[in-house]
Amino acid sequence: MEYVDYYKILELDKNATDEAIKKAYRKLARKYHPDLNPGDKEATKKFQQINEANEVLSDPEKRKKYDQYGKDWQHAEQFEQARQQRQSSHAGGQQFSGGFDAGDFSDFFASMFGGSTGGSRQTKFRGQDYSAELTLNLTDAYTTHQQTITVDGKNIRITIPAGIENGQKIKLKGHGAAGINGGPNGDLYITIEIAGHPRYKRLGNDLYTTADIDLYTALLGGEIFVETLSGKIKVKVLPETQNGTKIRLKNKGFPVYKQEGQFGDLYITYQVTLPTNLTDNQKELFTQLSTM
Predict the structure, then answer these.
(1) Which residues have C-beta within 8 Å of that of residue 171, sequence separation ≥ 6?
(2) Using one digit for the tens of pLDDT, what is the confidence trace for 115-141?
(3) Cβ pair 171, 132 in contact under 8 A
(4) For residues 5 and 263, what is the distance between their CA atoms, to the nearest angstrom?
(5) Cα angle 288-291-292, degrees, rounded to a multiple of 5
(6) Is residue 151 within 8 Å of residue 185, measured between CB atoms?
(7) What SS3 class is residue 171?
(8) Residue 66 contacts residue 53 (beta carbons within 8 Å)
(9) What residue spans of the chain are helical by DSSP H?
């Protein structure tokens, strides 16, 4: 029975990271996918080998077993004992996750990980996963709303929950490529990108902004109106407020993802604006103040 080098199939070395295995699998599965190589038996065979290799190397337990016994598996007494115990406790074969039956794999795979290669069943392959990006404005991400995206010519309507983060992924099960020979469809992964805002900076669920106040309000105190993502609010300014003073408005920040009614805070930094085009009388008053 031929030994199968799964690392060679995925064009990797034995020290490959989980991320490297994932990237290699996606690249090669896309290249040899039967949908992209209709009627090419060699591509179909290669695609099956790639899926078999990924089935083992992406599973920590299977990879550990393969790394330990793979090269000399026919002569490993410990492996034979484990295999016999498996056969006695799992008589009749077993099914594997990811849309593949044990019979879809090579004899080597079946010997290593259990199952029977008999039968005339057609190989079932899970459809390829799709990836997409969706760009939102900060104001869009502030409220729960619906968006329509187009994938393979089909319009898909999705709900975007309020408070979604930049870079967050949404998984739509079964909206990827169709499966082969009755295999399950792949999934669609949508990465959310939130564009910057000219007025607000977002850090987690908190928002940061600035507000201008004139010199007289800074000195004597008063009230100003501040624009928030939910509308204008009135804010009290304390007397003798210094330039750069920061205040916090509790629960006036960004909504917390999938926690209705909960919000972060809004932080406002005051920028004191100095008066311009002073009259002679105003200049005289400031001169008097400076000598007191």
Answers:
(1) 187, 188, 189, 190
(2) 444 444 556 778 888 888 899 999 999
(3) no
(4) 53
(5) 90
(6) no
(7) strand
(8) no
(9) 6-9, 18-32, 41-57, 60-69, 77-89, 107-113, 138-142, 215-220, 280-290
What are 43's two structure tokens?
Answer: 């591509």
Pick the CATH number of 201-290 from 2.130.10.10, 2.60.260.20, 1.20.140.160, 3.40.30.10: 2.60.260.20
> pLDDT digit string (tens) for 147-169?
998 887 889 999 999 999 999 99
Structure tokens at 248: 């916090």
Residue 209 buriedness (CB in 10 A; 0-12 / 13-18 / 19+): middle
d(C-alpha 41, C-alpha 23), whole Å: 24
3-state secondary structure of 135: strand
Answer yes or no: same fold for 6-113 and 130-194: no
Locate 137 and state its tokens: 């404005």
